[in-house]
Structure formats: structure tokens, C-alpha cells
Write a structure and sequence with these properties.
Elements (H helix, E strand, L loop, with lengths): L1 H19 L3 H21 L3 H20 L27 H7 E2 L14 H16 L1 H6 L6 E6 L6 H11 L3 E6 H4 L6 H14 L3 E7 L1 H4 L8 H15 L7 E8 L17 E4 L5 H11 L11 H7 L5 H21 L9 H8 L8 H14 L1
Parallel strand pairs: 2-5, 2-6, 3-4, 4-5
Antiparallel strand pairs: 1-3
Helix pairs in contact: 1-2, 2-3, 4-9, 9-11, 12-13, 12-14, 14-15
């Protein structure tokens, strides 16, 4: 497998060289070969997530090969200057770059509106929110406000919602980006977009940077493409610069697959605090039901406390799906039976429950527990 990786990286490098030298036919040939090796690596991969990453990489190289003719290349034989600038290139910094990532309107969600997650909210409040709200007290204790927090756990349990609540709680510039937003299929564009984002964040005296889908942006180095290696290295270098600066950065990340992230990302000054966002407990499940069924007509046979106890292993998004499905079922029944009013019954919930299994099974939860123990 290491041979396949080496050959893929060779063709990636050769494609870049051909593009710089203005040789589109050679560039297309090397891009196609890089795609071939990426697909071969996908077939040889033992992990579904790694295989999916290689497939996406192959698709990216095929798209590059198809679009090389449309790209503005230097004339054949032209030498690139390391100190020169490309007049057709967008500036790396500036208002345009900043506005792409900056959230100008604070999300309308607070901690007390999020059901459950008491331990996670307390940890975030102590590490992130309080030091930023009272920097003078933080400094008196010899601490530096800010730091890195990774929220991990099964999908659909409110990791992104927590990030939005932090933005509401703090009076700081809030930047949001997902791995998919930053990653580009065009070679070199991903690094440029990451640099633009981090430069915009550095320009603020106090900022919150929320990176969603961190695993897609900062995967383990060595097993994927040369592009991945460069992005991770660039991230580590840029984020490390905040430790010596006067700027205050709260770095937040969210992921469903923390074990796919490069280990260097977890060192001091990056995501050195990791918080497990577990599926909601009984009290949190009841809170989700009550929030989404507030002012919704329900039959007397619907006992939400009973339903909250039944749905062990169901994520927050699972429960919202059950509620919405029950609403549609009640509407359809009211129309068929020509009822004057529609209300959710126990049978509506039972009918939908059969179609929505719990997203968090025991095997998945055990894997998260092992990751947490290894990270201590």
C-alpha cells in the first residue's frame, strides 16, 4: 500500500509541476494517473472512512483533469517566480476573505435552551466562556484566555448547536467553517482557503473559530494525499502562532470520527481539551420532546415521560425525526378520516418509531469510550 501512496504522490507532484510550466496535456495525464492510484488505495483500504477519503480524492483529480483546459496556465517554458505575485490571483487577506467566514449575526440560541449535556456545557463554560468574559481575572491567575476544545460523539447530538450557543454567550468575532467548505478539489486551493480563514481570525483581538467536520480538514498524515499532509502542517503552524500573540482565540471543533484526525492536532495549543457529546439521557430526551411538541395537540394516550425512557440510544436528531414523522402521520390521518382537528396519538409515534432505528448502537458508543480513555 505504501508503494501506491508513493506513486500517487509522485503523479500529484508532476501534475503541479506541469501546471506551473504550462503543459496542460502532461498535467491532465498525471492528474488521471493520480486518480487511478487513489482508486487503487480505496480498494486496498481496511477502513470505510479511509476508503471514502480516497474515492473523494480520486473524484477530485478526475475533475482537475477535465478542467485543466479551462484554467489560465502560464505559457509553456515560463519560470514561476517565488517572490512575484499573480495579478489574476485574489488577495489572501482583506474584507472579502473575512466576510466569507465571519458570522455577523449571533445565533439565537443559548445554553439553557439546549436540553441535557450538563457536563459538556459546564466544561465549556469553565474553560472557554468564563476566561473570555473576565480576562482580567484570568490574567491574575497566570492563565491565558482561549484555547482549543474538540466536541466529539455520534452525529445528531448537538455539537454544532453548542458552538452556536457559545457564539451567543460571548461578545467576540465568531468565524464558522466546515471541512467541506475549506477543502477544494483544485490543487493548492484548499491551503489558500485555510490561510485566508486563519489570517482573518488573526486580525481580530478576540475571536471564536468553529471548525465543523474537523476530520475532513485535518485527517491523519501519511495515509492520504500530499494535499492532506500540507493542510495539516499549515494548520499546526498557523494555530501555534497564537500562543505567542496578544490575540485571544477560542478554537472549537466538532467531529463524529475523532480517531481519523491527525494526532498532532491534539497537542497543547490546539484541540488539547476533548469533550464527549453523548446521546441524550432520559431527562434530555424528555426536554427534546417537550420543546418540539410545545403547543402541538396530543391525544391523552401520549405520555412523553414514557417515550423518553423508551428511546435509549436515540440521538437528538433521531427524536426530532420521530416527532416530525408523527406530525405528518397525524395530519394524514385527519385528512383521511375528515376530522376537524389533527392531533398526535400514541399510534402515530409507534408507527414512525418502526421506521427510525437508533443511530447510536453499542459498538459505536464503545468506540467513542475507547477514544476518550486513550486521550486521557
Amino acid at each position: 500500500m505504501s508503494h501506491l501512496i508513493q506513486r500517487k504522490q509522485h503523479h500529484e507532484t508532476q501534475c503541479e509541476t506541469a501546471l506551473r510550466e504550462g503543459n496542460p496535456e502532461q498535467a491532465k495525464a498525471h492528474a488521471a494517473r493520480a486518480a487511478d492510484y487513489a482508486l487503487a488505495l480505496a480498494k486496498a483500504a481496511t477502513s470505510e472512512s479511509v476508503a471514502a477519503s480516497y474515492v473523494a480524492d480520486a473524484e477530485g483529480w478526475l475533475e482537475i483533469a477535465e478542467n485543466i483546459d479551462k484554467a489560465k496556465l502560464p505559457k509553456a517554458g515560463a519560470k514561476s517566480s517565488s517572490g512575484g505575485s499573480n495579478p489574476n490571483e485574489e488577495p489572501a487577506e482583506g474584507d472579502a476573505a473575512k466576510q466569507e467566514w465571519l458570522v455577523t449575526e449571533k445565533p439565537n440560541i443559548r445554553f439553557d435552551q439546549i436540553a441535557g449535556m450538563a457536563d459538556a456545557k459546564q466544561s465549556i463554560r469553565e474553560m472557554a466562556i468564563l476566561p473570555l468574559q473576565r480576562p482580567e481575572l484570568t490574567q491574575s491567575l497566570g492563565l491565558k484566555a482561549g484555547g482549543g476544545v474538540l466536541l466529539y460523539g455520534p452525529p445528531g447530538n448537538g455539537k454544532t448547536l453548542l458552538g452556536k450557543a457559545i457564539a451567543t454567550e460571548l461578545d467576540a468575532a465568531f468565524f464558522y467553517a466546515s471541512g467541506a467548505q475549506i477543502r477544494s478539489k483544485w490543487h493548492g486551493e484548499s491551503e489558500k482557503r485555510l490561510r485566508e480563514l486563519l489570517q482573518a481570525v488573526k486580525a481580530e483581538p478576540m475571536a471564536v473559530l468553529f471548525l465543523d467536520e474537523v476530520d475532513g480538514l485535518l485527517p491523519k498524515r501519511g495515509g492520504n494525499s500530499a494535499v492532506d499532509n500540507r493542510i495539516v502542517t499549515q494548520f499546526l503552524s498557523e494555530i501555534g502562532g497564537f500562543e505567542e500573540s496578544e490575540n485571544t482565540l477560542l478554537l472549537l471543533g466538532a467531529t463524529n470520527v475523532p480517531w481519523d484526525i491527525d494526532e498532532a492536532v491534539f497537542r497543547t495549543g490546539r484541540f488539547d481539551e476533548k469533550i464527549y457529546i453523548q446521546p441524550p439521557d432520559v431527562a434530555a430526551r424528555l426536554g427534546i420532546f417537550q420543546h418540539h411538541l410545545k403547543e402541538v395537540p396530543m391525544a391523552e394516550d401520549v405520555v412523553l415521560e414514557t417515550w423518553a425512557e423508551r428511546l435509549e440510544g436515540y440521538t437528538g436528531s433521531d427524536i426530532v425525526g420521530i416527532v416530525n414523522g408523527a406530525k405528518r402521520s397525524a395530519l394524514g390521518r385527519a385528512i383521511r378520516e375528515e376530522l376537524e382537528a389533527a392531533m398526535i396519538s400514541h399510534d402515530d409515534l409507534e408507527r414512525i418509531l418502526k421506521t427510525i432505528p437508533p443511530s447510536a448502537n453499542a459498538k459505536m458508543l464503545a468506540k467513542y469510550e475507547r477514544f476518550g480513555q486513550q486521550s486521557v
